[in-house]
Amino acid sequence: MAAKRAIDLLVATLLLVLLAPLMLALALLVRVTMGSPVLFRQPRPGYNGRLFTIYKFRTMSDKRDDSGELLSDDQRMVPFGSLLRKTTLDSLPEMLNVLKGDMALVGPRPLLPEYLDLYTPEQMRRHEVRPGMAGPVVMGGRNAPSWEVKFRLDVWYVDNWSLWLDAKVFAGALWKVVRREGVSHQGHVTAPKFQGSSRTGEGRDQ
């Protein structure tokens, strides 16, 4: 894993330098179209289930109903935010998480903390490695597959990890992004919430 961490640091640093002008432009556009803050911050479980703060560009407004509750995702999604999601540009700030050691370039996607109590012991094994910007789920279609399929792929990745597998997953993720495949689950802006393996349900990967 030392080689994996070294590659993560090298690639994330190079990408941050190369993409700095693009990220600055995106930050300005988010500020203009959605206001402040520019970054979306949220706790996510990482290695061994420990919580960290994930960084992404905002893709939704803060519109609320008359009682002060946030509106649904599809009501708060703005056109520029939708474009960021479709192109996965909203995830570029996650490279800061990679530099900090919270995440890797490749690994199971970090989901919501509320899911931790819903995982089976087998599903919980997805936290035996650092979460990644590009996950093995991309091989099954990003947000399109069911949660059962996603978790099986995550655990398969944990059991079969290699630098070569990371290279394949990363290349596959780039291909999916270029083709804009699997951005959302059918009938949802991203994917419905995970409600546990005993029920049918999906959860959003903000």
Walk me through the structure:
There is one protein chain. By secondary structure, the chain is mostly helical. It has one domain (2-179). Helices cover 43% and strands 10% of the residues. The strands form two sheets. Strands 1-2 form a two-stranded antiparallel sheet. Strands 3-4 form a two-stranded parallel sheet.
Short description:
By secondary structure, the protein is mainly alpha-helical. It is 43% helix and 10% strand. It has one domain (2-179).
Features:
206 residues; mainly alpha; two-stranded antiparallel sheet; 4 strands
Which term fits the overall shape? globular
Low-confidence stretches: 184-189, 199-206
- Strands of the widest sheet, in order across it, are 1-2
Q: Can you summarize the main beta sheet?
A: 2 strands, antiparallel
> How many domains make up the coordinates?
1
Taking all Cα atoms into account, the compactness measure Rg is 17 Å
Query: What are the secondary-structure elements, in order, as H or E?
Result: HEEHHHEHEHH
Report, as a whole number of angstroms, the end-to-end distance.
Answer: 27 Å
Average pLDDT figure: 86
Helix count equals 7
Quick one: how many beta strands? 4
What share of residues is helical?
40-55%
What kind of assembly state do the chains in view correspond to?
Answer: single chain
- Percentage of residues in strands: 5-15%
Which structural category fits the helices and strands? Answer: mainly alpha
